[in-house]
């Protein structure tokens, strides 16, 4: 599943929907549309992903490979939750002119040769098949969040971002922003008399991070040059007062820290 987070798919979805968002949307539909019978819990196995014209164009070169990745993802989710699928998982993409960039829909159904057995076991009627629309802003808060448990179960690669200040590492988790300064109320506290109480702000911007000086007395340096607001990359060196910091951003796989 590494390609769902890194590699060619990640590059294709810099500003469009990311494949991880689609994967999490599929599993959310599995969970919400599962049906409990006498002896089994059934989950949808047939998924239609509705994309905006822009997002559909972005995935076109990788569509078949992405289908296989998504099938592996939902299969692993079914195993981990002891869901029974009445047929092999299937994923198809369709283009919907009514969707905007950053929106996608998922239609989930139960289809397959076990339909008769499911009815005989007393499973509820299949009420799946409605299309749910997801938006990127909502997914960032929940659907697309990749947890350590996801990494362990599905073999995903996840991102770790940290700010290392004078040897101490501060994890940059969640949406931020993170205030840097001398005050104990800040997210990242630097005990340096040359650092202002509220010195700088580190925040997410699109698919990256930016550092912004908050009109500090001694300024903020990026690789030795004074800045007001700049995008930062892995390995960049920052200076707050007389204290040096290093921005770290890397991908880790299962079992890695």
From TrEMBL:
InterPro entries: Cell_Proc_Reg/RNA_Proc, FHA_dom, FhaA_N, FhaA_N_sf, SMAD_FHA_dom_sf. Keywords: Phosphoprotein. The keyword Phosphoprotein applies. Residues 178-227 form the FHA domain. Gene3D superfamilies: 2.60.200.20, FhaA, phosphopeptide-binding domain (DUF3662). Signal peptide: none annotated. CDD domains: FHA. The keyword Manganese does not apply. This is DUF2662 domain-containing protein.
């Amino acid at each position: 599943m590494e390609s769902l987070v890194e590699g060619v798919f990640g590059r294709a979805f810099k500003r469009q929907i990311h494949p991880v968002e689609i994967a999490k949307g599929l599993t959310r539909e599995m969970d919400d549309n599962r049906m409990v019978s006498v002896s089994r819990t059934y989950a949808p196995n047939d998924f239609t992903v509705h994309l905006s014209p822009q997002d559909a164009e972005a995935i076109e070169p990788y569509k078949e490979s992405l289908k296989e990745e998504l099938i592996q993802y939902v299969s692993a989710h079914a195993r981990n939750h002891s869901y029974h699928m009445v047929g092999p998982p299937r994923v198809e993409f369709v283009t919907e002119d009514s969707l905007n960039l950053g929106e996608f829909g998922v239609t989930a159904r139960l289809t397959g040769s076990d339909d008769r057995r499911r009815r005989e076991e007393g499973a509820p009627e299949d009420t799946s098949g409605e299309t749910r629309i997801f938006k990127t802003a909502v997914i960032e808060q929940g659907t697309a969040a990749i947890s350590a448990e996801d990494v362990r179960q599905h073999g995903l690669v996840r991102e770790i971002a940290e700010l290392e200040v004078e040897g101490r590492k501060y994890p940059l988790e969640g949406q931020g922003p993170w205030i840097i300064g001398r005050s104990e109320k800040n997210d990242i506290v630097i005990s340096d008399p040359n650092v202002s109480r509220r010195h700088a702000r580190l925040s997410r911007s699109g698919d990256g991070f930016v550092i912004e000086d908050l009109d500090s007395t001694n300024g903020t340096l990026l690789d030795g040059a004074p800045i007001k607001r700049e995008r930062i990359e892995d390995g960049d060196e920052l200076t707050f007062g007389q204290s040096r910091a290093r921005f770290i951003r890397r991908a880790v796989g299962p079992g890695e820290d």
